[in-house]
Every structure is written in structure tokens, then in C-alpha cells.
Amino acid sequence: MTDEQARRTVVLLGAGASRASDYELPTMQGFFAEGLLTADSVDGGGKYSLLWKFLQETYGVDRKGDVSKQLADVNLEEVITHLFNLEHSLLPINRHRKAELQSAREELDAYVYQRLIDEPSAKGNSNRTADKTQTDVEPSPPGMEGSPPPCRAFHCEKHERVFHELALLHDSIISINYDLVADGTLQKMKETRGQTDDARSSRDQFRERSRGLLGFSPNWDLRGIGPCNDEMALGYYLKLHGSLDYLYCPNSSCPQHHTFYENRPTLKRYDLPESSFCKLCGRQLVNAIIPPALGKSMDDFPKINVIWSMAYNKLLEADRWIIWGISLAESDHLFRTLLREAAHEAKRKDTLDVSVINPCEAAASKVESVVCAEVRRHECVEDHLDGK
Predict the structure, then answer these.
(1) Which domain holds residue 295?
(2) Is 353 part of a structural domain of the chain?
(3) What pLDDT is stored for residue 259 in this prediction?
(4) I want to staple 378 with a disulfide (CB 3.0 to 4.6 A). Which of 47, 55, 252, 383 is the partner?
């Protein structure tokens, strides 16, 4: 069978996949339900004061009532999108309110980082936070005191089993998650299982060309105005909504605004301090967390267009989609449009095999309505892997 004839698979990861991982990360719905109360009580109520105020004013959260129940109804992506829309609104919002909203967004970013990076522990070992052991911790180098904590090396057996089914030469992984569960699993796969040199090479090349697409890898050929046929035929790891370890310059007139920087060169140490600024224009670097807003977010994060364009092409050429833990939230119009259009224009749409891994029947029904095709639903990833 030639490469052109090879069966191609795309795995799509949503928050439900990270929820089902060894770390049981929170989903978008109810993201604030437990962690925000815990963080606030530990910090005396002041750590996320402006975020609390925003949730009270915008979502009617009353700290005198049943706060957990109220927060369970608040969706993280809706909050991110709402703050993003206000920041870029044409409404005549006064200077004080704008500053308050910006501070609320900064507190939200810190809270998301805490929930998805600092807090998670693998099930069955409350002392092991994201596979970080004491031997992983190195003292801060001179001049780097105050740097963020050591990078967490996530690894999930369930994710690894799914990824091992893929031929990474031409299969792809598309994620709408900000967390690093899939990233860490891909990083550590070659270390945790005995593989042939060819398998290791394929996995390393998969990671390197995926990083190269964002400008992270010096081995990626940036010559030419677009990817060539050979590059288009390869598999990639694509994060459509950015990542907690992507940084970028928010200054739209700066040349570095058009790329992301992966602040995660090793599994042991972030290499930029928290107050890092752009070397070209001096603006403070910020996390590239892309809200599911229509249009405008693509202008603010131009590099993300490359990721979405490649994702569309990978979906078009695939024979099989495996959709794990994706609810197709109403707030994410652009992602639903991506799936709908890709299913309609797919090269093999008459034989496209769509599997949904989700305990919720309604999620599978949403996928069916979007792709206009019958899907097979598996209650859990184990059922999918066992062919049930």
C-alpha cells in the first residue's frame, strides 16, 4: 500500500479526554466549581478577588448562597470569550472598567494555570503531581530566581494506548485543550516503552515537525510561501486553542507577534521568568490561550491560522475521525464550523468512519448533527480500544 493509499486517522481531543486521564482534569463546564473556592480560602479571599467580582457581576454568582452549585453552571470557555469580547469591544467602556477587566483576565490565566498545571496528581498517588519527582527539581540558575516552577511532565497510559494505534508518519492529533497531558504523553512515550529505533524516530519526527509548524524547531524548512506536498502529507499534533506553554508578543506591530514561543524546552525547567518581555519591542509576553471567538481571535493570534488550516487539511484527507471527550459547546462556533465543513468536503466522505468516545449520548448526537453522518459511540476509551 502506498502512502497515498494508506488509511489515515485523526484523533480529536477535548476536555473530556483530559478528564478521563490519569489526572482527572476539570472540564470546561464547572471548571470553577471546586478549585476557586479552595484557592480563595487558602489565600484569604484575595488571590482572585477581581475574578470573583467579574463572576458575581456577569454570572450572578453570590458567595452567600450555594456557591458550588452556581459555579458548576459557569463554563470556562464562555468566560474567556466574554472577557476577550469586552477587551476588543467597540463599546465605550471607561478606562477604570477596562483596567479591571484586564486584571480579571490575568487572574483567570493564573487560575487556569493552577488548575491544569500546578494542582493535578495522577490517580492512585496523591504525592505525585504530574509525574514530577524531587529529583526533577533543579535550583534556579543565577539571575533566574523567581522563575515559574519546574515544568510538569504529564504522562497518561490511556492517551498513550490511543496514540500507539496511530501511524504518526501520516496520522494526526488535534486538540482543543490548553493542558499538557497529551504533550507530556507524546514526550515520554519513547521513554516508557521499548520501541524500535524506527518507531522512536517516527515519534521524534512527529513532535519536531509539529513544533516546527509553530516556529519552535530549527529543523523545519520555512522556505517557500506554503508547505509543499510532502509536508502536507505528514501527520501533526495541532492545538487549536493554544496552550499553557505557548507564549507570544501581544504587540500587533511587532514581527514576533506572528509566532508562538514554546516555554518548555525541557521537562525540568521553564527557561523564561514570569516577567519575560519581547526582545524586539519590550512588551510583556503573555500566554497564547485562544478564545473560541469568531474571527477576531484569528487576528490577535495570527500564528493560530496556520494550525487551523493544517487541521482542516488533515480532517479532509482522513478516513477515520476519533472524537474523544468533545461536547461541541455552543460557544465554540468556529470548531463546529471546522468539523461541519471538513465532513462535507472530505475526500472520503462516503466512507468516513467517525467514532465518539463519550459517556454522554447527547454528545454523540451533536456530532452526528454536525457531520451529517452516523457515528459509533463508545462509553469510555477502554471500550474503544477493545473494539466494543
Answers:
(1) 9-24+150-244+291-385
(2) yes
(3) 82
(4) 383
The residue assigned the cell 449520548 is: 361
Q: SS3 of 229, please? A: helix
Mean pLDDT in each 10-residue stretch from start to end of the chain (388 residues)? 69 96 91 74 64 88 79 89 84 89 90 86 52 39 38 81 92 95 85 55 82 72 74 92 89 88 57 80 90 70 88 95 91 89 88 94 92 91 87
Instruction: Clarify whether residues 230 and 296 are in a common domain.
Output: yes
- DSSP-derived letter for residue 340 is H
User: How much is the pTM?
Assistant: 0.86
How many residues are there in the chain? 388
| CA 177 – CA 59 distance, rounded (Å) | 23
Q: Which of 177, 305, 293 is nearest to 244 (CA)?
A: 177
The helix, strand and coil proportions of the chain, stated in percent and rounded to the nearest 5, come to 40, 10, 45
Same domain, 226 and 345: yes
d(CA 152, CA 116): 10
Domain co-membership, 114 together with 225:
no
Q: Quick count: other Cβ atoms within 10 Å of Cβ 347?
A: 12
Question: 118 and 149 in contact (C-beta within 8 Å)?
Answer: yes
Residue 309 Cα distances to 241, 315, 316, 336, 384, angstroms: 13, 10, 11, 15, 28
Per-residue cell: 247: 507564549
Please indicate, yes or no, if residue 77 is contained in any of the structural domains. Answer: yes
Query: Same structural domain for residues 215 and 297?
Result: yes
201 lies in the same domain as 319: yes
The set of cell numbers assigned to 34 is 471546586
Tell whether 186 and 70 lie within a shared domain.
no
Q: Which amino acid does the sequence have at 64?
A: K
> How many structural domains does the chain have?
2
